[in-house]
TrEMBL record:
Protein source organism: Streptococcus cristatus
Gene3D superfamilies the UniProt entry points to: Phosphoglycerate mutase-like
InterPro entries: His_Pase_superF_clade-1 (IPR013078), His_PPase_superfam (IPR029033), PG/BPGM_mutase_AS (IPR001345), PGM_Phosphatase (IPR050275)
Pfam families per UniProt: His_Phos_1
Protein name per Swiss-Prot or TrEMBL: Histidine phosphatase family protein
GO molecular function annotations of the record: phosphatase activity
One CC-aspect GO term: cytoplasm
Top-rank lineage group of the source organism: Bacteria
Signal sequence range: none
Residues annotated to bind substrate: 9-16, 61
Active site, per annotation: 10, 84
Length: 199
C-alpha cells in the first residue's frame, strides 16, 4: 500500500519573531503564526485533502498549528519523538550564538542532541508511525530542524529538491512505499495577504 505523508512545520512563534533558539523549549504562536496555520488549512481544503490520521510534536506550537489547520475536526496523537532538536543550555538564547552550519555534535557538550541523534530519532519515529497507521493520508506537524533532517535521511530517494529553508507552515509531501520515503513536493504558502496584528 502506498501512503501519503504531509509533514508540516508549525506557524511563527514569539521566539521565532524574536530570533531566539527554540528546540525543546516552547513559545506561543504569534498572530501571524495563527494566520499561517489557517492558510495551510485552506490549502488542504482547496486540494481536497482529508486526513485519515494525524500526529503532532508534544510542543504546544505544533499542537496549536495542527488544531488550527484542521479547524479542530481531526483527532490527533501527540508524540514526543516528533519534537525539535534539543539545543541543551542554548534553549531560549539568541540565535546569534548558534555555530556555523552544519551543527554536527556541537550541542552535545551543552546537554543537547547531536545532528545524528536527531536524525535517527525523527526517522525512527516517523517510520514507526507510518507503519502503524491504517489510513492512506497522514498529517504530522513537527519543526524546521527535525523535518529538514528527516528529509536528509531519505535524500537519495527524493523526487524533488528542497531549495529553500523550512519556512513556517511549509509542507513536505512524501509518498511511503515498501519502507521508503519519496519526497514528491515542497509546498510553501503565500502569506502576503496578512493585514498585521489586530489592535
Amino acid at each position: 500500500m502506498i501512503k501519503t505523508l504531509y509533514l508540516m512545520r508549525h506557524g511563527q512563534t514569539l521566539f521565532n519573531q524574536r530570533h531566539l533558539i527554540q528546540g525543546w523549549c516552547d513559545s506561543p504562536l504569534t498572530e501571524l503564526g495563527i494566520y499561517q496555520a489557517q492558510v495551510a488549512g485552506n490549502y488542504f481544503k482547496e486540494q481536497g485533502i482529508q486526513f485519515d490520521q494525524a500526529f503532532s510534536s508534544t510542543s504546544e506550537r505544533a499542537c496549536d498549528t495542527l488544531e488550527i489547520a484542521t479547524e479542530g475536526k481531526v483527532s490527533y496523537q501527540r508524540v514526543k519523538g516528533l519534537k525539535e532538536w534539543n539545543f541543551g543550555v542554548f534553549e531560549g538564547e539568541s540565535e546569534d550564538l548558534n555555530p556555523a552550519l552544519p551543527y554536527g555534535d556541537f550541542f552535545v557538550q551543552y546537554g543537547g542532541e547531536s545532528q545524528q541523534e536527531l536524525q535517527d530519532r525523527i526517522d525512527h519515529t516517523i517510520r514507526e508511525l507510518m507503519e502503524a497507521t491504517t489510513g492512506n493520508t497522514i498529517l504530522m506537524v513537527s519543526h524546521g530542524g527535525a523535518i529538514r533532517n528527516f528529509a536528509r535521511a531519505w535524500e537519495k530517494y527524493q523526487r524533488t529538491e528542497i531549495k529553500t529553508r523550512m519556512t513556517n507552515c511549509c509542507i513536505l509531501k512524501f509518498t511511503y512505499s515498501d519502507g521508503i520515503f519519496y519526497l514528491e513536493e515542497v509546498i510553501h504558502h503565500d502569506f502576503s495577504n496578512w493585514k498585521g496584528p489586530v489592535n
